[in-house]
Design a protein that fits this description.
- The protein is mostly beta strands and 450 residues long.
- The protein is built from four helices and 32 strands.
- The strands form eight sheets. A five-stranded mixed β-sheet has the order 14-15-16-17-18, with no helix packed on it. A five-stranded antiparallel β-sheet has the order 24-23-29-26-25. A four-stranded antiparallel β-sheet has the order 1-32-31-30.
- A hairpin with a 5-residue loop joins strand 16 and strand 17.
- The chain is globular.
- The N terminus is likely disordered.
């Protein structure tokens, strides 16, 4: 299913996609193969942009300066990459990139550093206890590469941080804390993560409902991790993890209480505030709480007979990849929402705070003459809300984000292959191989109407 993005560019047939071409580079890719990859990424210290191309048993690294002029390149055989997937990257203090290649079969990571000065590379193998520590997620932060594993036997997460040729292991111990399931019955930390895998929220970006309906979310801050658990409909259990001293602080945020039991609930952390929603077919409750004091900053209750006054879009329903349709009233919206996995997403630009509230159905197994078939039809209901930075309602006109325009552009251009998206300065870059012109292309996309 195509992700539902903020402001849903599919609604805006009037959007002008007058994107700017930032750079092109000829690539002799005769045909796209399964293991071919292209990744563009930025050195956060120098703001140089690197493009890594893996194809047909060879690799090419293009190095652009901060003004996106090509100033170096590095080509060689793909010696270490057979049956491996690219997990991520880091940069050393000398400015050279290191890439991390994972093998599902070998259960290890090959680390390759590329030296542009003499066009050489150096590889080493990183072994970790993969049988007892499955990988939960991986990410880049401050030019380091990090991946998080879960201990199968103990209530612990283990973070491996790679920087300047050194790996640091950090054990996050949750044994001092207690946990409960949806029915408030005792449950172990590991059981919760098995049933509700951790979903990493992308910092500084819009995270779509397809991600934010997760009951277990991880937020990356400066030298901190926020972990939220929402499997219990009555509260959000939040853990503030200090990565310097590995101290873990627990806070419990009670969900607003509906008149009838909530069918679903969830939360979203954003800039030291916790946004909570829950509800049923009769009402929708929405709270914003301060993380430090845990006091409510704003509390909204909407019944099925009310008009949602803080919405800046219609109440919309979308099935699979078909165009969204408008729901007639709040009662219809809540009727659909109450049967879905509820979620909320919060994103801020220089002017406003953008909030998406909605829900998505999960695929279920359908029985037919004794056989079970996956029901892959998905249903999404949602609306958008635009607030000022003091959490006041606005009547702002909806405008598409850069990511909306990127996905609309890709839908309209079938010549795009091996695409990669990155944030750079105050805009977004879509990098891809153009199968028609046989070249790598970087396009610039900005927020708002052109």
């Amino acid at each position: 299913m195509r992700k539902v993005f903020l402001f849903l560019a599919v609604l805006y047939n009037s959007i002008l996609l007058s994107q700017t071409v930032l750079a092109t580079y000829p690539l002799d890719l005769k045909r796209i193969r399964e293991n071919d990859q292209i990744l563009n990424f930025e050195n956060n210290s120098t703001h140089e942009v690197f493009v890594f191309v893996l194809s047909q048993g060879n690799f090419t690294i293009l190095k652009y300066n901060s003004a996106l002029f090509l100033n170096d390149q590095f080509t060689g055989p793909a010696t270490y990459f057979n049956d491996r997937s690219l997990m991520g990257y880091s940069f050393s203090e000398d400015g050279n990139p290191t890439l991390y290649w994972f093998s599902e079969a070998a259960k290890n990571i090959i680390i390759v550093k590329y030296y542009f000065e003499n066009k050489t590379s150096k590889a080493l193998k990183f072994e970790y206890p993969n049988t007892t520590q499955p990988i939960v997620t991986s990410y880049q932060k401050d030019n380091s590469f990090n991946f998080l594993t879960q201990d199968k036997t103990e209530p612990k997460l283990i973070l491996y941080a790679f920087k300047n040729g050194i790996v640091e292991e950090k054990i996050l111990d949750f044994s001092p804390f207690t946990f409960s399931d949806r029915k408030t019955q005792p449950q172990t930390f590991n059981q919760i993560l098995i049933e509700n895998p951790i979903e990493k929220m992308e910092p500084g970006e819009y995270n779509p409902l397809s991600k934010t309906i997760s009951k277990t979310k991880m937020y990356l801050l400066s030298d901190r991790i926020i972990l939220t658990l929402d499997q219990n409909v009555k509260k959000t259990q939040l853990f503030d993890i200090n990565l310097s001293n590995l101290e873990i602080k627990e806070k419990n945020f009670v969900q607003p209480t509906p008149k009838k039991p909530a069918r679903s609930s969830n939360s979203y952390y954003h800039e030291n505030k916790l946004y909570q929603i829950n509800g049923n077919e009769d009402e929708l409750l929405f709270d914003i709480k301060d993380l430090d004091s845990q006091q409510s900053l704003k509390s909204i209750a909407v019944s099925k007979t009310d008009t949602i006054l803080f919405k800046n879009s219609p109440l919309l329903i979308q099935r699979d990849n078909y165009s969204p349709k408008e729901l007639k009233n709040t009662a219809k919206f809540l009727q659909h929402l109450s049967g879905l996995d509820m979620g909320i997403s919060v994103f801020k630009n220089k002017k406003n705070v953008f909030i998406t509230i909605g829900g998505i159905s999960k695929a279920t197994n359908q029985s037919f003459e004794g056989f079970y078939y996956p029901d892959i039809e998905t249903k999404t209901v949602f609306f958008e809300s635009i607030w000022d930075k003091k959490l006041g309602f606005t009547t702002e006109r909806q405008q598409p984000l850069a990511i909306d325009k990127i996905y609309l552009f890709m839908d309209k251009h079938k010549e795009i292959a091996l695409e990669s998206i990155m944030k750079f300065k105050d805009y977004s870059i879509l990098g891809y191989f153009d199968t028609t012109t046989k070249q790598y292309t970087m396009l610039k996309f900005t927020d708002g109407f052109e």
